[in-house]
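> @MW can you paste both from yesterday?
MW: sure, first one:
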Amino acid sequence: MKEAIAILTGGGPAPGMNTVVGSVAKTFIEKGYRVIGLHAGYSGLFNPNPRMEDLSYALADSIFNQGGSYLQMSRFKPTDKDFEENFNLSFFVDNNVKLLVTVGGDDTASTANRIAKFLESKKYPIANIHVPKTIDNDLPLPQGTPTFGYQSAKAAGSVIGRAVYCDARTSGNWFVVAAMGRSAGHLAFGIGSACHYPMIVIPEMFNKTEITVEKIVNLVVSAIIKRKLMGMDYGVAMISEGVFHSLSNEEIKKSGVTFSYDEHGHPELGKVSKAHIFNEMLEKKLKELGIKVKSRPVEIGYEVRCQDPIAYDLVYCSQLGMGVYKLFNEGKTGCMVYVSPEGNVSPLYLKDLQDPATGKIPPRLVDMNSDKIKQVIDNLLSYVTPADYQAAKKYVADPEEYDFRKILNW
């Protein structure tokens, strides 16, 4: 029987999913392997009748530059009981599968790590290689290497973001934009800085103080006051949805939002409009202060996940897909494929990235000490400083409460 590999996609989509799958398929088919695509993520590995299909070279060629994911994705997370009772070893044996390729983010990577350890403990001769993706850019890859999909999502988000800023200037309004990012603010900061937004709020900014609803709102008010002092009656505030993950339960109640949670224990932020919530809180505060400003909410999230990949991700994801074969051919397993900025392929072992206590892979956060971040904060954002206190009293009695650096305790 011809040797085979199996490939699955987990979590949510990101630009470049099909580029990775197509490149893996093309490379292995050229080397004489059968390539099996598994639909519905990990669920097929814990199901006696998985949804599967053979991927042909022609199919791979037709999907590699398309957005979305040809292989249907899933957030299925196997339990310990699933591993012991439902793991579908016969799928691997009956199809002569020698390699499992998983494509996904932090949760998919953590599950891939569990599968690798499980296969090793059972002495099953099946290699496992993971391809890291997420538009959140929060997997801990070295040397600041982006996760695939991030650059395309940032580019697509910036198209929306620039149009929103143009609307703000044209109409003399403010907009509150919320961008995806479960625990890290890479996407929000990337879009906000690309669009020269006068205020960007991400969870990492609160590195010296607790995140509260009041502080988030006051940061935006700070920008509004500063812009008024500059004679500019418009602007956009970008807020990362990740701030919700850092709010205490008491603070979340203050926001008036009740969240449901997914199988991984994460609040299902996609079910509510964060921009609407932030905008409502801002309008309430402005009304209390007697500051007349029209503000409108805009959400940037699902709109950017299935965009066609830009050239950066088309090249990067092709390198990752071909890199899977290189690592497999070298006998590597239980690792992520890593492509350096110079284009060199090497393994990044999941066990070296995981938290020793929880087994989970911790997120890569925005480095607030980098010049890249500091320069945007120091030069592009608009906010109240001590030099503005006297003039700002025209709008608020206590300007110090809206001092950007005092709010953050910097």
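MW: second:
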Amino acid sequence: MSAESQTFTERYDLLGCIQCGRCTGGCPVTVRANLNVRRFVNDAYYEEKLDELARQAEIWDCTACHTCAVRCPKGLKPLEVLLGLRAMIIESGKVEPTVRDALQSVLLEGNPWEKSRAARSDWMEGLDVKIAEPGVPVENLFFVCCTIAYDPRVQAIAKNIVRLLNKTGVDYAFLDDSETCCGSEVYTLGEEGLFEMLVEDNTEYFNEYSAKRIVTLSPHCFTTYNVHYPDLNKPVIHYTQLLDELLKEGKLVWKGDLPKKIVFHDPCYLGKQGGVYDEPRDLLKSIPGAELLEFERCRERSLCCEGGGGKMWVESESKKERLAETRIKDAKALGADIVAVACPFCVLTLEDAMKGLGYEEEMRVAEIMELLGEFIEA
């Protein structure tokens, strides 16, 4: 049965829901918004209610963190009901200007940040970066991510990994300005047609390259390629998995030490959705002098920072404390000096929360590659 001929109930397997409420009970957003995932799944069964449900502001509070999917005893993905309702709104054309502009930017420039495609690799300036060529074999083909490519705050992730790769002699290559958005946020914002186009075009593009694997710098790209790109002819890993391999092979050597307490924040797209938990921790433990702490809510129970699910372009109507602020307060209570993350969106949301709370003199938010870059042996 084609997706076009399926009813909403069939497409999202609404009859499989037993209304146990574990999705709503685990949803981190419920503490600050009126989002009740179980109720949406229940009401969406009635086709006559769909238009009314799609107009509810709460569908945009979902961060697509996948906690509801992790907790569902029936193996369903309740969040996809909300994404389906978003798709109805997108199709109607009645969306926030910020969402409209982001989607149009992806279509025209290959990124949601309204930046020129021609400037996508400007971050490489001054670096000795190996560029991939179709048909030329390479072991690790790197995909940078729109946010890292354009936002100066997180460009250090890409810059430092280039320095490290050159130092270790790893066979690698980066893509040039022809690299385009993976579609992660396009998917969660509900633009199904554009997402399908990106999957088709990117699959054809990647399959032209002779590479052992694709290495992503962002968990959003990592999960999107692994979950939504069934026809890729090569596996996809996150950069922390590659670096963990190098660590175990004795190829990573750090200079100096960092006598600080570090707590790692599990990004939803890397942990809950990608199943990558140990590799980032192994890398942090390898830093001389560092002490690794753990949040009470860690690994599959990690608290979402609210950076995913298209939330960078949709402002919540809630005025209650943001989850990123809660996370920073938890880190301060632990006595952490550094909140380490492995996701560009987490860097931006958590750092904004830290500054808003006035903690920037007491602690620091840093992406793992940002930290490791300070200890690459010269």
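> thanks! The CA atoms of residues 204 and 274 lie 23 Å apart.
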